[in-house]
Design brief:
The complex is a heterodimer of chains A (about 575) and B (about 160). Chain A is α/β, with parallel strands linked by helices and about 575 residues long. In chain A, about 35% of the residues lie in helices and about 15% in strands. In chain A, helix 15 (about 365-375) crosses helix 16. The termini of chain A are far apart. Chain B contains four helices and nine strands; from the N terminus they run βαββαββαββαββ. Chain B is elongated. Helix content of chain B is about 30%, strand content about 40%. In chain B, strands 5, 6, 7, 8 and 9 form a five-stranded antiparallel β-sheet that branches. In chain B, strands 2-3-1-4 form a four-stranded antiparallel β-sheet, covered by helices on one side. The chains are: A alpha/beta (about 575), B alpha+beta (about 160).
């Protein structure tokens, strides 16, 4: 291919890896690379803050399954990426983050805009490289993309000193040679046999599914297995959409803000099949009393997850999709059982729901209405109450249509991630379900969306407070609302208009449907300011450190939520009310 | 309980930091860590002594295996391997104590590698038990300084831990 500069080689590598779009913001040491980007076919989206570049690459990756790519300059540019890289790491998102670095002769001299970014990001990357010689560029990029997307996916950082991007090299794209990296995808047939036998023996099985099923595209195999043995399926936040929530065997989400029936089912199960999930503390509650009667089968591509948080009886290392396919083949059809009836009873008795209100808009109703108007939407969320309501009250049926920062819980993630998702899936209707607190953390990206004509729709559930923290203050800190009031500043409609976006507002329940319909019809970036009560809570709730059995209902439900629609059940009985 | 892990890692900058960082981040306790080149200059060998139960050991092993620069991770069974540590001890050696110190050195098959009017440096190589026993005996004279290499270990017989 002949001689070229390091910068040209980088773009050649990106092209060979099939990269169509990168998110970034230039700086001094990146001038040679940005000069090469000027002539390149690869689309560069200029963000307004580097954190958004990482989140947008992450949202793009989650929506498309491809590797997301972001780029930031040395020093502060690189450190601004850190939150986005950590977000991707916690949720196993394939990403390549490129950072500029001072020239190799200045490294270690505390040069202008120097930061040891490979050191800073070591705990939050799957792997990282500091390229010291232009000749290494092809090998490093080839390895980085391979590592990012294979096995358990994750972010890989490439630090690029300025001189490395200027120096010339003879370009040759090498074969992968990584003796220390052999992701084990093939499942062991003996373990499958054991797992299948356990599933056949079990009287009260529950399948517990995480993001691994989404990343391996295993949702069809999951459905087949579940239907064959009539095993109910609960998903984690990351697993949402891997199993259709309107299916009779769906339990919805489990854990802290999961459904009561999912948590009850876990606690009474005699067998748990965990697939691509990692027994996070928000899922298990008090781990010592998690699923006390159950044997555990754990399928994961990352062997280190097996046995990390809970004791596992049958470990299965490998790809979730192939494990589910093998299991579905190895089991025999089972009939609808008393266990299924018991769960249906719980669903009837303890539906997700909320109290209706004719004066104030209920956030749960916003999600339900949005689902009615646009069931195919891609839902991206911020973090906090908005995220939980989006998980609970929109009926999720497809993987990759619910995008949320689960592990790290990054406020400010949703809006830039929505921009990335929309660029990856231009035909999808992409909504960022936001809170007024979270949205303000990356509100400057309105400029990115408007300038690049990325028509995402932001729905702000505006309670004027940091709602999730306030909820805990309300319940556990005697309503001492320390530093959680945001005073309904700014006026989001005016902010939207100032950026050249469409701003809409709904203050009364009667306005909700019309405003949402207008947002859906809008062909430009749209911000919908939905005024809700600061006292609205996410319910039900397992208090931190409590067992899943101790799940509390915080609001009297007279309106069965999205998950129960197919059951049309009456009001919940047995409700523990914590507030008047 | 102490476990000995032998690691073959790529001989590249930053690899030691990745391994040390992993231990501190995940809350694993390193008792000792040694590193040196192997016969192949592309790889280094580390011997890490870890304190913890079987569950901790399993997590340590699995997490180490996830590092791209780590080629092999082997736990060495103490019953089937030989382990050694080299220690230098600078001990206070008054005239009247010297012959007793030299007797101890001789019993432990250690070596005196430096002598000055008031002190000696003793080099001892052996298992941890032997080293500890010798240190206990020398303490009565006054240990002024001590430098230990940490444990290195190798499986007995034909079995090898190589890349």
């Amino acid at each position: 291919m002949g001689k070229m500069s390091g910068a040209e080689a980088i773009l050649e590598c990106l092209k060979l890896e099939g990269v169509e779009i990168i998110f970034g913001l230039p700086g001094g040491v990146l001038l040679p690379l940005y000069d090469a980007i000027y002539d390149s076919d690869i689309r560069h989206i200029l963000v307004r803050h580097e954190q958004a570049a990482a989140h947008a690459a992450d949202g793009y990756a989650r929506a498309t399954g491809r590797v997301g790519v972001c780029l930031a300059t040395s020093g502060p540019g690189a450190t601004n990426l850190v939150t986005g890289i950590a977000t991707a790491y916690m949720d196993s998102v394939p990403m390549v983050a490129m950072t500029g670095q001072v020239s190799t002769d200045l490294i270690g001299k505390d040069a202008f805009q120097e930061a040891d970014i490979t050191g800073i990001t070591m705990p939050v990357t799957k792997h990282s490289y500091l390229v010291k010689d232009a000749k290494e560029i092809p090998r490093v990029f080839r390895e980085a993309f391979y590592i990012a997307r294979t096995g358990r996916p994750g972010p890989v950082l490439i630090d690029l000193p300025r001189d490395v991007t200027v120096n010339e090299l003879e370009f040759k794209y090498p074969e992968i040679n990584l003796p220390g990296y052999n992701p084990n995808l093939k499942v062991h047939h003996l373990q499958i046999k054991k797992a299948a036998a356990a599933l056949m023996e079990a009287e009260r099985p529950v399948i517990y599914v995480g993001g691994g099923v989404k990343y391996s595209d295993g949702h069809r195999e999951l459905l087949r297995l579940s239907e064959r043995i009539k095993a109910p399926v609960t998903t984690t936040l990351m697993g949402i959409g891997c199993f259709p929530e309107d299916h009779p065997l769906s339990l919805g989400m489990l854990g802290m803000h999961g459904t009561k029936y999912a948590n009850y089912a876990i606690q009474e199960a005699d067998l748990i099949l965990a697939v691509g999930a990692r027994f996070d503390d928000r899922v298990t509650g008090k781990v010592a009393s998690f699923a006390p009667q159950a044997r555990v089968i754990h399928v994961d591509v990352d062997p280190a997850e097996i046995g990390k948080n809970v004791r596992v009886d049958i470990p299965v290392v490998g790809d979730a999709k192939s494990a589910l396919a093998e299991l579905a083949k190895a089991v025999e059809d089972k009939p609808w059982s008393p266990w299924n009836d018991k769960i249906s009873g719980w669903k009837g008795d303890h539906p997700l729901g909320y109290a209706k209100d004719s004066e104030t808009i209920k956030p749960q109703a916003v999600l339900e209405t949005l689902y009615e108007l646009c069931p195919e939407a891609v839902i991206v969320t911020e973090v906090g109450q908005n995220q939980m309501w989006a998980a609970q009250f929109f009926t999720h049926k497809d993987p990759r249509r619910f995008i949320s920062s689960g592990g790290l819980g990054t406020m400010g993630y949703g809006f830039p991630a929505a921009i990335g998702a929309k660029l990856g899936c231009p035909d999808a209707e992409v909504f960022d379900i936001a809170g007024d607190g979270s949205f303000q953390m990356n509100i400057q990206e309105l400029a990115t969306a408007v300038v690049n004509e990325v028509p995402v729709k932001v729905i702000i559930l505006n309670n004027g407070v940091l709602g999730m923290v306030r909820q805990w203050q309300d319940l556990f800190y005697e309503k001492r609302f320390s530093s959680t009031t945001l005073h309904r500043v700014p006026d989001f409609v005016k902010v939207a208009e100032a950026y050249g976006a469409l701003g809409l507002r709904a203050t009364k329940p009667s306005e909700l449907e019309g405003v949402l319909a207008e947002a859906i019809d809008s062909e430009v970036v749209t911000v919908v300011d939905v005024i809700i009560s600061p006292d609205e809570k996410v319910s039900p709730m397992v208090p931190a450190g409590a067992s899943l059995s101790e799940i509390l209902e915080l609001e009297k439900a007279d309106q069965p939520g999205g998950l129960q629609k197919s059951y049309a059940v009456p009001a919940a009985t047995e409700i523990l009310e914590l507030e008047g | 309980m102490l476990h000995t892990i032998a690691l073959i890692v790529e001989n590249r900058p930053g690899v030691l930091v990745r391994i040390a960082g992993l231990f501190s981040r995940r809350g694993f306790n390193i008792d000792s860590l040694t590193v040196g080149a192997t016969d192949n200059p592309d790889y280094s060998r580390m011997t890490i002594t870890v304190d913890g139960d079987e569950v901790v050991l399993e997590q340590v092993t699995k997490q180490l295996n996830k590092l791209i620069n780590v080629i092999r991770v082997s736990e060495l069974d103490p019953a089937e391997s030989v382990e050694r540590e080299l220690v230098m001890i600078k001990v206070a050696a008054k005239k009247e104590d010297r012959s007793e110190i030299m007797q101890i050195v001789s019993v432990f098959r250690a070596k005196i590698i430096d002598v000055s009017p008031r002190s000696m440096i003793i080099e001892v190589t052996g298992s941890q038990d032997k080293v500890e026993a010798m240190v206990r005996l020398l303490r009565q004279f006054g240990i002024k300084e001590m430098a230990r290499t940490g444990r290195v270990s190798m499986v007995r017989g034909a079995k090898v831990v190589n890349p």
